[in-house]
Amino acid sequence: MPLYWRLFSLLYFVCLSYSAADFFSNSFLVRFRRNVDTDEAHTIARRNGFVNMGPVLGAQNEYHFVSHTLPSPRIKRSITYTRRLKVDPLVHAVIQQAGFIRVKRGYKPMRVENLVDSIQPHKDPSDPYFTYQWYLKNTGQNGGKAKLDLNVEAAWAQGVTGKNVTTAIMDDGVDYMHPDLKFNYNAKASYDFSSNDPYPYPRYTDDWFNSHGTRCAGEVAAARDNGICGVGVAYDSKIAGIRMLDQPYMTDLIEANSMGHEPNLIDIYSASWGPTDDGKTVDGPRNATMRAIVRGVNEGRNGLGNIYVWASGDGGEDDDCNCDGYAASMWTVSINSAINDGQNAHYDESCSSTLASTFSNGAKDPNTGVATTDLYGKCTTTHSGTSAAAPEAAGVFALALEANPQLSWRDIQHLTVLTSKRNSLFDAKGRFHWTMNGVGLEFNHLFGFGVLDAGAMVALAKQWKTVPPRYHCEAGSVTKMQKISSSNPLVLKIETKACEGEATELKYLEHVQAVVTVNASRRGDLELYLTSPMGTKSMILSKRPNDDDSHDGFTKWPFMTTHTWAEYPQGTWILEARFNSLTPQTGFFKEWTLMLHGTKEPPYTELAVLDPHSKLAIVKKAHESRIKRY
């Protein structure tokens, strides 16, 4: 069994801690006893009163069946319909799909200014909204801080504009007839999983609620110098529309098929949505969706791996994006946002799994958002939220992939860490300061490793050598049940050699997970901290004032940190659990497993260093010093 499938099997149990579904759909996952072709699946579906929607992730033994006679949504599972399928001699298992909620991040209702016709070009560059695109070129307009931007002009000046790269916008559809998008639209890579057809055009509503995906698409690939709206970060790249958000509820099969759609035609999947950002939800990808993502990073792009970009969440300081299993996954790139003067936005969530940041809206004028395409050929300047941040990152990654098409999904993450900049980013409330980890990399609990720098990423991508193979090491566990209380915080330790001498040995960290089972009289008052052997302390769970759970807790939940990136894993890891509450709280800590992910060989030895003060030079020096000790 491949190593990554063993890892998937280990992590599959996280599904147990997700909130129970409030309702069930009329969709069923049907697993056959042997491989069947599509025609045979159609026959089996018809004779049992179902419609075959097609195979799941291309498998020949798993199909998606729908019953149009079963009321949906419903509170209870349908035993009758499940049995109807299970008695068929070819059917091995039937799983009725739970319905759950996924919400767009950063959507704001329509404003009158959204309807204003495009301004005619008046200066170079010709795109009329370019002057409003402060996140591409910040000259201090609208109260912003000059040069606080994505530095895309430095990438464009290198002749890199996103050619031959496709980004899929997984959302509520894309207006592919928009004049600023239609020539960069990749129809072959697009699909509508809400209506099951190849045309992911947004469904009309009076309030333009389904403008979300079109706005995100324009940020990535709006055309340049055509006199319409603004310009995309990677304006010569392609965008695909995957319509999958526009239905009353989400199912595992819709998500899985969306994230596994055309993995060799699509390079980057951009997601500006997730579980409800209410500060009390703990949720993430289910079984089939997890399988789709794991397959994408290991097999997509002909083995180089798809890049999944995720908006970190809009729950503000009362939420923690480590409770969002999509944004906190090591297989996704979680992106937070900043506003045009360097502060975090009021809706930004913080967590240790965030890798980097881009931009959302203005400081002095909240209506100064991201200028991009809108429905029906219109333009807008008010797109905002981490919804706006994720597509900007996707555009930067598209530039990097044009500069070096051989970059793997892990290479993109390494490049992000090494080229993102602190610039002028700061926490408006002074809670989270910039900190240096054990090998000299600067990080922030809100912004990750800083704001993306397209020029620097493209320049480093051109000389990049693929990082060594990745290993997963189960470094140790604590399984003794122990009580926690407000007066008695818990400190647990794991001493590890990081699988030294084994096939999965590693010496240079990428992602670190603390897989935790714990309950509490009030889950939202629990805080967790993980400290590495090199002394880097990560808050892997913060206080969530709205989370009143006293029953579910966390069951084998993989809290993830990127803050120890490139550090050495051997030594003592410390996990602290404590309550942050004026009211006395109690709980039981049941289990902690430490999962280390990284390489055995140093990752940057073959790269030239042009700037002795760069992150790359600092980390290489730390690694070379370490190598001499062995």
Automatic annotation (TrEMBL):
<dbReference type="GO" id="GO:0030537">
    <property type="term" value="P:larval behavior"/>
</dbReference>
<dbReference type="InterPro" id="IPR038466">
    <property type="entry name" value="S8_pro-domain_sf"/>
</dbReference>
<dbReference type="GO" id="GO:0016486">
    <property type="term" value="P:peptide hormone processing"/>
</dbReference>
<dbReference type="InterPro" id="IPR022398">
    <property type="entry name" value="Peptidase_S8_His-AS"/>
</dbReference>
<dbReference type="GO" id="GO:0004252">
    <property type="term" value="F:serine-type endopeptidase activity"/>
</dbReference>
<dbReference type="InterPro" id="IPR008979">
    <property type="entry name" value="Galactose-bd-like_sf"/>
</dbReference>
<keyword id="KW-1015">Disulfide bond</keyword>
<dbReference type="GO" id="GO:0016020">
    <property type="term" value="C:membrane"/>
</dbReference>
<dbReference type="InterPro" id="IPR023828">
    <property type="entry name" value="Peptidase_S8_Ser-AS"/>
</dbReference>
<keyword id="KW-0325">Glycoprotein</keyword>
<feature type="domain" description="P/Homo B">
    <location>
        <begin position="466"/>
        <end position="602"/>
    </location>
</feature>
<keyword id="KW-0865">Zymogen</keyword>
<dbReference type="GO" id="GO:0043005">
    <property type="term" value="C:neuron projection"/>
</dbReference>
<keyword id="KW-0165">Cleavage on pair of basic residues</keyword>
<keyword id="KW-0732">Signal</keyword>
<keyword id="KW-0645">Protease</keyword>
<keyword id="KW-0378">Hydrolase</keyword>
<feature type="signal peptide">
    <location>
        <begin position="1"/>
        <end position="21"/>
    </location>
</feature>
<dbReference type="InterPro" id="IPR036852">
    <property type="entry name" value="Peptidase_S8/S53_dom_sf"/>
</dbReference>
<dbReference type="InterPro" id="IPR034182">
    <property type="entry name" value="Kexin/furin"/>
</dbReference>
<feature type="active site" description="Charge relay system">
    <location>
        <position position="387"/>
    </location>
</feature>
<dbReference type="Pfam" id="PF01483">
    <property type="entry name" value="P_proprotein"/>
</dbReference>
<dbReference type="Pfam" id="PF00082">
    <property type="entry name" value="Peptidase_S8"/>
</dbReference>
<protein>
    <recommendedName>
        <fullName>Neuroendocrine convertase 2</fullName>
        <ecNumber>3.4.21.94</ecNumber>
    </recommendedName>
</protein>
<keyword id="KW-0964">Secreted</keyword>
<dbReference type="InterPro" id="IPR002884">
    <property type="entry name" value="P_dom"/>
</dbReference>
<feature type="active site" description="Charge relay system">
    <location>
        <position position="171"/>
    </location>
</feature>
<dbReference type="InterPro" id="IPR032815">
    <property type="entry name" value="S8_pro-domain"/>
</dbReference>
<dbReference type="InterPro" id="IPR015500">
    <property type="entry name" value="Peptidase_S8_subtilisin-rel"/>
</dbReference>
<dbReference type="InterPro" id="IPR023827">
    <property type="entry name" value="Peptidase_S8_Asp-AS"/>
</dbReference>
<dbReference type="Pfam" id="PF16470">
    <property type="entry name" value="S8_pro-domain"/>
</dbReference>
<feature type="active site" description="Charge relay system">
    <location>
        <position position="212"/>
    </location>
</feature>
<keyword id="KW-0720">Serine protease</keyword>
<dbReference type="GO" id="GO:0005615">
    <property type="term" value="C:extracellular space"/>
</dbReference>
<comment type="similarity">
    <text>Belongs to the peptidase S8 family. Furin subfamily.</text>
</comment>
<dbReference type="InterPro" id="IPR000209">
    <property type="entry name" value="Peptidase_S8/S53_dom"/>
</dbReference>
